[in-house]
Amino acid sequence: LVAQDARSPPSQKRRTDDSTSTGDLQPMPTSPPADIQSPGAADALFSSPPQFRHSAIPLDFDISSPLTYGTPSSRVEGTPRSGVRGTPVRQRPDLGSVRKARQVDLHSDGPTEDVTTEQCLGQKLVIWGTDVNVASCKEKFQRFLQRFIDPIGKEDEDVGLNLNEPRYMQRLEEINIVGEPFLNVNCDHLRSFDENLYRQLICYPQEVIPTFDMAVNEIFFDRYPDSILEHQIQVRPYNALKTRNMRSLNPEDIDQLITISGMVIRTSQIIPEMQEAFFKCQVCSFTTRVEIDRGRITEPSVCKNCNTTHSMALIHNRSMFSDKQMIKLQESPEDMPAGQTPHTVALFAHNDLVDKVQPGDRVNVTGIYRAVPIRVNPRVSSVKSVYKTHIDVIHYRKTDSKRLYGVDEETEQKMFTEERVKMLRELSKKPDIYERLSSALAPSIYEHEDIKKGILLQLFGGSRKDFSHTGRGNFRAEINILLCGDPGTSKSQLLQYVYNLVPRGQYTSGRGSSAVGLTAYVMKDPETWQLVLQTGALVLSDNGICCIDEFDKMNESTRSVLHEVMEQQTLSIAKAGIICQLNARTSILAAANPIESQWNPKKTTIENIQLPHTLLSRFDLIFLMLDPRDEAYDRRLARHLVSLYYHSEEQMEEEFMDMAVLRDYLAYARGYIAPRLGEEASQALIEAYVDMRKIGSGRGMVSAYPRQLESLIRLAEAHAKVRFSEKVETVDVEEAKRLHREALKQSATDPRTGIVDISILTTGMSATARKRREELAQALRKLIQSKGKTPTLKYQQLFEDLRAQSDTAITKEMFEEALRALADDDFLTVTGKTVRLL
Amino acid sequence: LVAQNVPNSDWEKKVTEYFKEKLKENNATNWVPSLNDVPVHYLKPNSLVKFRCMVQDMFDPEFYMGVYETVDPNTNARVLHFGKYRDVAECGEILLNSSQTITSERQTFYCVPVPGESAWVKEISFVTELVLSYISASQARVSPSTSYTPSRHKRSYEEDEDMDLHPSKQKEQHMGSGSDIHGCVEPKRLETEASAGHHLTSPNCSPPLDLNFPLPGEKGPACLVKVYESWDSFKVNDVLEVYGILSVDPVLSIVNNDEREGSALDLMECMDTAEEQRVHSPPASLVPRIHVILAQKLQHINPLLPACLNEESKTFVSNFMSELSPVRAELLGFLTHALLGDGLAAEYLILHLISTVYARRDVLPLGKFTLNLSGCPRSSTFTEHIYRILQQLVPASHRLQMTIAFRSRLIPHKDYAANRLVSGVLQLASNTSLVIDETQLEQGQLDTTGVHNVTALGNLITWQKVDYDFSYHQMEFPCNINVLITSEGRSLLPSDCQVHLQPQLIPPNMEEYMNSLLTAVLPSVLNKFRIYLSLLKLLDYSISEEVTKAVEEDFVEMRKSDPESITADDLHRTLLVARFLSLSAGQTTLSRERWLRAKQLEALRKARLQQQKCVNGNEL
């Protein structure tokens, strides 16, 4: 009822001014229905609550208030009983740890209270300083719990929920079975159900959440009267739509329910926080309890029993403590504007939430934002005019841990505003979007259009397919690309660009990285002596792109770890007693220099880069970046470079799509678009594959492998994603084929014949070379056979004979290869310097 | 004056406006004492000061009481106060529950003096201020805005404190400085004492509080700068000049120690570690607070130049441009001597010194011109002397020995315990000259730190960015640093351009030679050099369509004749050389002649490298 100025003092905002209070607390017994039915139990609840010994602080206790709903009243009796009467309530320090609201006791037995008692009837009452009416609020929330059905329900926690039944009633059932007395409530659900209730929750969490607790417990114990829980159910709202990044927190958010995301950087030790002190009189052994009030315990100066002054002593082990932990949360790097350092905010976690997160975790935190003034000196009244702020945590949600269901990894989807989505959609309708995007990619790098297109498709990626039920596991959706070429053809620059563009990119250099640096390693934590798994670049770029420069400089053993990553998309670790498999669904963009540092056009790609072909075949596209040495090209290049040097910054911005748009476009496509193959497209793919096989089979060997077909599918899917299309069509297949061919044309052209030969990639040897080897072997066989029935031959002699006979030059290597081929055919064996026929 | 009693958002604007106007007046900025020159203990608390600094770290935003209400325990009278521009809320009992309280937000920056600032920058800016303030002392009454009015007696801290703690009535005159005390030393005294106290921060505070300067051995005050508006526009490593109210209330220092009383605050305090406390609320005597009224980013810190190039400074620029060529010739001669008579190297050194990153094309920084001066004599202290000469010319510089780079941590990293960014040598302001000395290098093994440092230096040179280490992730900070590498052979770091030094003379005593060189230059000439180098960095540049065509033709021709050795990189470099060559002559467009000259220079340089290769080849 009282319109609140949002900028009023944070801590005492609600209970402002005595004169203006129009409504007061609701006389609501803790658990009305149950109590009425069983007066004995009600007695247990009300028999010895410490609240009634409140002569020292008369105004501070009110069992009817939802705020003290969690006061440990019946815990003292402790006998486990079923139902709401027996289940102990537990304090919620997350809601009121720092101070206790000033409340008015509305019970008739409140001796000092005389204000507004007569107003307490009826439904118009609200909690002081808010517009929250406890009764109606509770009723509404109960209705929400009982009726809310979320038909879309796409949360990963929904496993096993019947989407057509009221969602939260199923949750309660779960609580009954599992016995974990917490109910997580998605604020978004609440908002779609009752906008006003949601608003109240956001604005007055401290008052509304206890009301929710009350409501939920009533329903729960009504349904499951025999259930035994550790303590009464506590409601934990999350996903408050006031989700903000840390930077946008401002004084208006104080005392409101907020959700922010960030990274945990430090956790404190557990701090035992006294909730209730136990005092004993040294003279007469009279005992009394004092509850914490605004962070302080008031020590009773006089014993009420024997009237001795200063005789009360604190008995530590009979006092009540609760766990508390301080956590520092830092802004996630993505949320940060460039050139600034990250902000941090302090969190306080209580009870069960203590030790739930570790430094390094990315979390979404829902909690109440608090601000407390700093007192310069407790004895002096002057106050440092600054507030300390922190968040009392109500709910954590880890964003990077493996959730129950690993499939939906895109939960961390970026939220897009509607206008943005509309803009992106519009953009996707443009006929030349593919060209547009590819030219927006690294505009400072000149030409290499196809390479940019390839990288663009890599950025989009294919659709993830799951064949685990048929035993093949996941199909890789990521596209791997290898760039190789002359030094100084801006390969590194492209890599840098990509690394800067994607949110989870990693950039390493082959020269500087070791196998463990790429994968993961086990380390002993110096403090705890625990074994800790430290992740390397490949794991860190899960769902991103790992850029590896100087791929050729990488040593053999390091490169070998890539085999598993590039096809299975996992990393297996068996080290120091830790055996595990980590996800590494990363695309690899590698750059390599030719082995002779300059590209030798007389050699094949394989010979030029000297990489094992097992690895090469895992790259979907291999591009050459060569210096074309062509006048027209030079001219355009010169123009491009000169323009770089005098265009002003603004002009450049206009010319190309800026990086932010591109980034959003990518994120949106990756998050929301998953194209499937259409009928026509499938047909086109089959044809393409058959064609590829045919080319090879014409010369008697297989030249295309299923891996190439998979590559084609991925590329086609990625191309469909560029158009935001849910269906892969023939055009996509055409483009995939074209790119694949373009890349191949460069990398798999047999320099001796000029024919594109895919077997170069798969066996590391061109078809002609193989054919030649075959011919030589046959010639050698004939030679040996012509020599008649000699069982052994001199190696050197044979070599010279063969050379004399052949009209082309035969090297020793070729000769040895031919020998080996014949040995494989069990025609002969070579022992030392003699050749023995079989 | 700005004195109002009712919360009114207008007054805040008026304050800024007012000071802006006042500071525009003739030399008004020079009356304001600068924290750079005057030791903190000579400045009056709560007076207007200025500070030229670099943002080293950004702390979390603070919520403070923008408006608060107090009550006098005796009379029960309620009074409203403003909390803006101050650290401590005073005056009696504060009503925390008052409905009138307004909570506002401000941002704290941790600022340090510009790292590597040359001595001459400090001296000149100090002297000009001194002179001007002396002149103005006689007419100081003109402006009531600046509380810097020299008065006869110097007050000690405590006295001022007492005065200020008096409940300043309802009328808060002029943000606390309205009280009529203007405790400041007279200029003459200031001169002597400041020059003495210049180098030591404050003698009585010896405990080693790490002030977190990027460069080792730096001196000067670090400052917590509290910004009230548009703090988003500032970035780490920005160079700022702030005008604001100095706050050195000793209460700030005891905040932490005295708090072990059982209070709610205790619970709050335990969340900050001791280190964090130390860093975020250091003693005010060591790290004073400045509450900013006006803050502006500086394009350069050269005191000989107008602060920004606008209409008013046009005459200055055109005057200087008219005498540009003799200055250039003199500078070339000077540097030729410094480089032992190598004219080509001197030419390239000038180009290097006026280079600056003027734009970034996606990841590619444009306008960087890292120079690798190879062939430096190893035995002598040649590099050191070159650096000393450069120090005389550029406003900020640092010399990094490669041997050190292998051992200590250069990259700034986040210390999570203290919650601050621990600075490193590579945290430098824009346009700082970094001289990397490779001549002292010995063979040996590199440890992890060394590898990281070399990678970081490589990134710095190639991409003009430094990845700061946040332990869980890295964050990229773009920078604009002129890197000059001196080495014997080719440097192990990448560079844009390598010039092999060919000394024409070897002086028997390097030290004597260099010293005599420096003393031979007149101060006025030296100042011209300084203006020359700083000014040319700020000029615009363009290439006409016509010349573009010519360049194109040229490139195609060159490729035709020698496709192996001419690459796109060469064109890049030649364009850069042409750009700086034109600028160094004061021309803002590329002419055909300059292009040819650039090509000629490049050819000379390459020939030298080729020659060098041959020599080495023969030796082997």
From TrEMBL, chain A:
Reaction(s) catalysed by this chain's protein: ATP + H2O = ADP + phosphate + H(+)
EC numbers, comma separated: 3.6.4.12
Keyword Endoplasmic reticulum on entry: no
GO molecular function: ATP binding; ATP hydrolysis activity; single-stranded DNA binding; single-stranded DNA helicase activity
Compartments, record wording: Nucleus
Annotated segments matching region Disordered: 1-49, 68-114
Pfam families with a match to the protein in the record: MCM, MCM_lid, MCM_N, MCM_OB, WHD_MCM4
GO biological process: DNA strand elongation involved in DNA replication; double-strand break repair via break-induced replication; mitotic DNA replication initiation
Key words of the record: ATP-binding, Cell cycle, DNA replication, DNA-binding, Helicase, Hydrolase, Nucleotide-binding, Nucleus
Residue ranges annotated for the MCM C-terminal AAA(+) ATPase domain, each copy included: 433-641
Enzyme class: hydrolase
CDD domains given in the database record: MCM4
Recorded GO CC terms: MCM complex; nucleus
Main subcellular location: nucleus
InterPro entries named in the record: AAA+_ATPase, MCM, MCM_4, MCM_CS, MCM_dom, MCM_lid, MCM_N, MCM_OB
Self-association state and partner proteins as the record states: Component of the MCM2-7 complex.
Family that this chain belongs to: Belongs to the MCM family.
Function comment: Acts as a component of the MCM2-7 complex (MCM complex) which is the replicative helicase essential for 'once per cell cycle' DNA replication initiation and elongation in eukaryotic cells. Core component of CDC45-MCM-GINS (CMG) helicase, the molecular machine that unwinds template DNA during replication, and around which the replisome is built. Acts as component of the MCM2-7 complex (MCM complex) which is the replicative helicase essential for 'once per cell cycle' DNA replication initiation and elongation in eukaryotic cells. The active ATPase sites in the MCM2-7 ring are formed through the interaction surfaces of two neighboring subunits such that a critical structure of a conserved arginine finger motif is provided in trans relative to the ATP-binding site of the Walker A box of the adjacent subunit. The six ATPase active sites, however, are likely to contribute differentially to the complex helicase activity.
Name this protein carries in UniProt: DNA replication licensing factor MCM4
Species assigned in the record: Dryobates pubescens
TrEMBL record, chain B:
GO CC, alphabetical: nucleus
Record's compositionally biased regions (Basic and acidic residues): 164-174
InterPro entries found in the cross-reference section: MCM_complex-bd (IPR019140)
Keywords associated with the record: Nucleus
Pfam family, one: MCM_bind
Localization, UniProt: Nucleus
Superkingdom of this protein's organism: Eukaryota
GO molecular function: chromatin binding
Region span, Disordered: 143-183
GO-annotated biological processes: DNA-templated DNA replication
Signal peptide: none
Transmembrane segments: none
UniProt keyword annotation of Nucleus present: yes
Assigned protein family: Belongs to the MCMBP family.
PANTHER family, per the entry: MINI-CHROMOSOME MAINTENANCE COMPLEX-BINDING PROTEIN (PTHR13489)
UniProt-recorded name of the protein: Mini-chromosome maintenance complex-binding protein
UniProt organism field: Dryobates pubescens (Downy woodpecker)
Lineage start: Eukaryota, Metazoa, Chordata, Craniata, Vertebrata
